[in-house]
What does this fold into?
Amino acid sequence: MIPESSKFICPVCHGPLLKLADNYKCMQGHSFDKARQGYVNLLMSGGSGKRHGDDKLMVAARRLFLNKGYYEPLRDTVQQLAGQGHTILDVGCGEGYYTSALAENNEVCGVDISKDALKLAAKRCPNSEFAVASIGSIPLSDGEADTIVNIFAPDSPTEYLRVLKSGGRLITALPMERHLFDLKAAVYDEPYLNPAVVTRREGFTLTTSKELKYSITLSSAEDIDALFKMTPYYYKTSARDQAKLNGLDSLTVGLEFMICEYTKNG
It folds into this structure.
């Protein structure tokens, strides 16, 4: 098998990586095993043993929910903005729901800190590269990406500026103030608004912003449970409040996304 160049770089020496049958390897001899599911672990965690990223429960819930098409308008909007013929980095790519759409007409690689998520992403998008990595230390060379896509993932402005080429684009999607408010109203005695979205970014010019608002009706207890468990609310909610969703077999929920496209200055 002839080694193939990877889009990723070695997290130790920052040199180019070659994709071999069972691992990724740089010229300095640093080697990283490729999981049987197809992703590579490039996370320099220091061996803390701490669980990283979304766990199996959250990943399974998100896959079930997203596969029902509830967020399809968001995916379609992001795909349209991304265009075609680009090198795209999907940061916090999760189980690959958005990545798969981006990869239809682009060369895409994805990073996420959750191995459980990347097991599904690599299976869903066999022609894309995936790495377990921190968004705070992205294993790509300077100026490697035409576009970065961030859907609800943590932010890393300095790394985005480094990885994007001059004039490159950043596409983000964030929840607006009343996103999932109906779900919170069903759970909490005093539901709260999300923080207002701040669109200004150092080093970037905002070129497009779009509010996407619509309602969905969850018509089964399974879908209601999946939506709740794929959000951070599940782990921050008492057993008493969680139980309020038990027995509900229908719930109408308003969705509100702010989608922004930025161009890197300079």
